[in-house]
Amino acid sequence: MVSKTQSIPGVNVDPAELQKFATLAHRWWDPNSEFKPLHDINPLRLQLIDELAGLQGKRVVDVGCGGGILSESMSARGADVTGIDLGEKALKVAELHRLESGANVNYRLIEVEALAQEQPGSFDVVTCMEMLEHVPDPAAVVRACATLVKQGGHVFFSTLNRNPKSYLFAVIGAEYVLNMLPKGTHEYAKFIKPSELAEWAREAGLTVSGMRGMSYNPLRKHYSLGTDVSVNYIMHTVK
Q1: pTM of this prediction?
Q2: Where do the annotations place S-adenosyl-L-methionine binding (predicted)?
Q3: Known binder of ligand: residue 85?
């Protein structure tokens, strides 16, 4: 059962963003739905996280877990996973899928800032994937993630770079040409340059260990990790 916090949500949340995903929540685990890109990239980012942080036996919190695609896959690698989100419908879908799969994931309807106050320094690994570009104050999320992780622990962020190429690929291409994502999924002004994210991480007491880019080949319909961080990128930090 999804547990709820006693705090009042809404401090660092955009209701319109929550509504976008609430409308599609029932399709979260359909690999051919609007969430197909998440299913396709999940093995790549899972492998990267496991290689760099070693998930077996680790306590992990997945911030902005949505329907639980990454949360469940990290659990399958031997991690004790807590998935948190403010999307109640998505969490209900995640919980139903967890009951079917038997994954060792505890889902909670709680803000990351509230969890950071409740359990500072409690997690070996913190993941925050495809969330920062959907909140009003992404730097506050970075600070909360830094608070949650243990000294020597790992924090992973993934988001979208802000430049003309990312607008062309992530908005025009993905939403309007290839129809990979629903129109209006992303707001270009909220995209985050790696330099900005790195600065927020350093201010929060995290050291940037590396970055990997996520690229998509529309002809082969194939995703890959590499050095090109001009569109999607994953930043690995250590406390």
Answers
A1: 0.89
A2: 45, 64, 85, 129
A3: yes
